[in-house]
Amino acid sequence: MKPILIVYGTIEGHTRKVSNCIAKVLKEEGFRVEVIDSDKAESVEFDRYSAIVAGAPIHVSRFPKKFTELIARNAHSLASRPTAFFSVCLGILQKDEPETQQAERDFVSNFFAVTGWQPEKWTIFSGALMYSKYGWLKKRVMRMIARKAGQKTDIDHDYDFTDWSEVRKFAYDFGQTVQRSLP
Ligand SMILES: Cc1cc2nc3c(=O)[nH]c(=O)nc-3n(C[C@H](O)[C@H](O)[C@H](O)COP(=O)(O)O)c2cc1C
Q1: What class does CATH assign to 4-127+162-181?
Q2: Residues 136-150, mean pLDDT to the nearest whole number
Q3: Which atom of ligand 1 lies nearest, measured to the CA of 13?
Q4: Would you kindly state where each structural domain of the chain is located, as residue ranges?
Q5: CA of 12 to the centre of ligand 1 (A)
Q6: What pLDDT is stored for residue 95 in this prediction?
Q7: What is the DSSP code string of 79-146?
Q8: Which ligand 1 atom minimizes the distance to the CA of 17?
Q9: Residue nearest to atom 17 of ligand 1 (CA)
């Protein structure tokens, strides 16, 4: 069986961590898996894979440009095999702000419209506040946003809001979908 591709975009590295967690679960289920950063995936042939998971973070209301372009270029290959998408963001944490949560879902719908790819399965994971990776200004802007949102404001620490059991379940369920698609 051909391997499963996990292709991700990232700015601060948290989406790579999520991708590696998905890869670990799929490997435990007996699949061969390749994990590739979309910035290095120019020449990757999507047709070489039995199934594909793609994921990216939202930064300033959009997914990374290179990631979006890569997916759009490969929409045809994505349409002909089992696929899943995950978004990583912080807006989804605002459980008492339905508009913000809806906006995060709208970014995903817009991404599907722009790329022409509609995966069978998609979800949104809470990301991380990585103060240690931000420059001076970004650190302060993010602290201001976090304060408004009632989130962690101690810039001497990073904060991981991802529910890792949710990530593992997403990966396991996708593995089941791939199993069912096998001849
Ligand atoms: C400059 C900046 C802008 C961000 N903009 C958004 C946003 O518009 N909406 C959102 O929900 N999260 C936003 N986030 C949160 C990120 O999606 C979150 O930190 C995620 O874990 C980043 O993933 P990465 O480490 O793979 O880049 C932003 C984070 C940063 C640093």
Answers
A1: alpha beta
A2: 87
A3: 25
A4: 4-127+162-181, 129-161
A5: 9
A6: 74
A7: HTS-EEEEEEESGGG-TT-HHHHHHHHHHHHHHHHHHT---SEEEEEE-EE-GGGS-HHHHHHHHHHH
A8: 26
A9: 89
> How far apart are the CA of 63 and the centre of ligand 1, in A?
9
- In angstroms, rounded to a whole number, what is the distance separating the alpha carbons of residues 181 and 113? 25
**CA atoms within a 13 Å half-sphere pointing along the CA-CB vector of 82:** 17
* Pocket-testing residue among 38, 65, 89, 140, ligand 1, by greatest number of atoms within 8 A of Cβ: 89
Taking the C-alpha atoms of residue 98 and residue 104, their distance in angstroms, rounded to an integer, is 10
For the entire predicted model, the pTM comes to 0.95
Question: What gap in Å lies between CA 167 and CA 125, rounded to an integer?
Answer: 8
- Atom nearest to 58 CA in ligand 1: 17
Instruction: Give the tens place of pLDDT for each residue, 76-110.
Output: 999 999 999 999 999 877 777 788 888 889 999 99
Identify residue 39 by its one-letter amino acid code.
D
Ligand 1 pocket residues where CB is under 6 Å = 10-15, 57-61, 88-91, 104, 127-128, 130, 138, 142
Q: Give the phi and the psi of residue 126 in degrees, each rounded to 5.
A: -70, 140
1: CA distance to ligand 1 center in Å?
A: 36
Q: 165: which residues sit within 8 A by CB, 6+ positions away?
A: none
Q: What residue has token string 């995936």? A: 41
CA 89, CA 59: separation in Å to the nearest integer?
A: 8
